Amino acid sequence: xxxPLELATAELEAANAPAGENPVRIGILTPMTPPGDxxxxxxxxxxxxxxxxxxxxxxxxxxRGVELVARNDMATADADGxxxxxxxxxxxxxxVDEVVAxxxxxxxxxxxxxxxxxxxxxxxxxxxNGHSTITHGRKSIFRTYFSCADRTPLMVDYMxxxxxKRVAVLAADTVFGQEMADAVVAYGTEHHGMEFLRxxxxxxxxxxxxADLERIAAWQxxxxxxxxxxxxxxxxxxxxxxxxxxxxxxxxxLPAVPMMVTFGFPMRSADYWNYAGDAxxxxxxxxxxxxxxxxxxxxxxxxxxxxxxxxFGMAPPDTSLSAFTDVTIIGAALNAAAEKGELPSEISGxxxxxxxxxxxxxxDTWRGPVRFDPADHHSSPELVLMQYQEVGQSFNxxxxxxxxxxxxx
Length: 409
Hints:
The protein starts with a helix and ends in a 7-residue tail after the last strand. By secondary structure, it is an alpha/beta fold. The chain is built from 13 helices and 14 strands. It has two domains: 4-148 and 297-370, Rossmann fold (3-Layer(aba) Sandwich), CATH 3.40.50; 149-287 and 383-406, Rossmann fold (3-Layer(aba) Sandwich). β1, α2 (38-57) and β2 (66-72) form a beta-alpha-beta unit. Pfam families: Peripla_BP_6. Keywords: Signal.
């Protein structure tokens, strides 16, 4: 069986084959082995590879090829912890590999460490996760994905619109799990007067939630928020978000109580139905407007969607979309910087010119032009809530259930 690391490596080798001499080097810092979500690393490399192909087919970057230089942010995680491992690999990208920019941060608990290293070296970094404050006060950090803070009002307002007064939250003790649980409870309490039953669990230890789920069922909530993540304590699939879904069905919590998850892993349709089974029907999750059926897709978005679907036989998830978008923005920003005058020869000067270009130009993306405010380099897409309403649906066919004005689109 091919491992995620082998899949990611194959993508990188294919992307770099036509790079040629003196290529523009773009870094990838992403989980490629356990204990991280190594399948996320595969999706990042797939999107980045397509970004390189798009740039090559649309004029190139500075008249040169592009090379993707990847580092596994889980390289020493077992011995040193997630953060220290990511920081070390970021430093290698900055100092040893001398990349012009980096992308691919998936786990919130590594992103802050990587961001601090990037700030020290002036290395532009695009993150692919929802860390709400990762871009705040930082000159070199950018994001085209949506944050935990972006999605929370949408999620809680929807539950309130469904009449929910009592909401149960089962949350992993990861940075993402805690940030989401804190935000949901705070917003629901302040804006809707909701009552919450919140149970936190140790992500690296717990594999059985039946007792917690029985307690939740006895509490009789109106809505259940599954705030698990996509890895498990044993480092193997399925992740605990899936296991919680399965065990919630075993104890009778599902499907009697509607369930919402806190990030878009259901968009990986094949994996989702394989692991969640029939119990996953009816799940609601936050997402951008992106999917092949969305009529607002731009030309670059259509190019990406068609190329990804042709190559991998499925609609692209947003993790791949985000990486693709970031690579193409980096390429376009470098070209825009060069049009203003000759770029510096030293890597620090090139990075500085790239950041200035990112702050002063608009960039073509799947959802239209994107700009980065110099005060906060966060550009969120429009968000919706999606729901599977039939077992086996692809995310392209999932229903948009909120906000009301875009239902069914």
